[in-house]
Amino acid sequence: MFKLLQTALVLFMVSRAPGALATPQTGAVTNLATTAYVQANSQRFYRDLKDLYAIDAKRNKRAKQGHTDFDTLYRQANAAQFELAQLTRHVAVISDTDAVMPGIKSRDRAYAKLHGELEGDVSRLTDLARTSLVANDIGSLVAAYEQLEARAEVVAVKNRFKQPKANGYRDLNLLVRLPKSDMVAEVQIHLAPIAEIKNGPEHDIYEQIQELERRAKLQPLSELESARMARLSQQSTDLYIGAWHQILSGVRQSA
Q: Who is most buried in 95, 111, 189, 250, counting CB within 10 A?
């Protein structure tokens, strides 16, 4: 890349010399500079992608709440959310990402989750306080993770870029233990094209699939319902795979 830039500089100097043919030499300089930029951009992209895949999944003993009483834990959720919001905004500024603050999970939803998928284990209710960060590129996403890790104890990581969901959805899903409240909270780090799908066209698809899954728990789905489920699932997959391909082709598009 240095040689390309050096050549571009020499050509530029020649083009400024008296009697030089400006038009073809200016074109040569432009082409070389563009090539150098694309190569540098490509190298940076693949380095960022390598760093992203280097983030390993983990979950340690501290990935649980320190309380076993639901009411006690829920009373502390607002203070934890405030602390998490401050942390997330700070990380967003440093990493050039956008912070999203949905607020604490409602008491009804938290209680339903506790006695549904968590089998009544309060210590596993780790997403009462939650925020998100949205990055426009992989480098910013990795930077957000590193800045968050430097300021709070990351006790669990799901790297869904390495192991995406069945429908192709990808993000970094983290649990952090907040330094002041000592409460475990959830932070999701998204790439913008995928976040736009999740919060846009795929949201309605997700709700329809959820409704069909609830029906299936009560009684077997009809043939038409099963076909509809398969069609919705494929639509969801197509959207997420398309967004990921868009991200991976970003360097070529910028050229």
A: 189
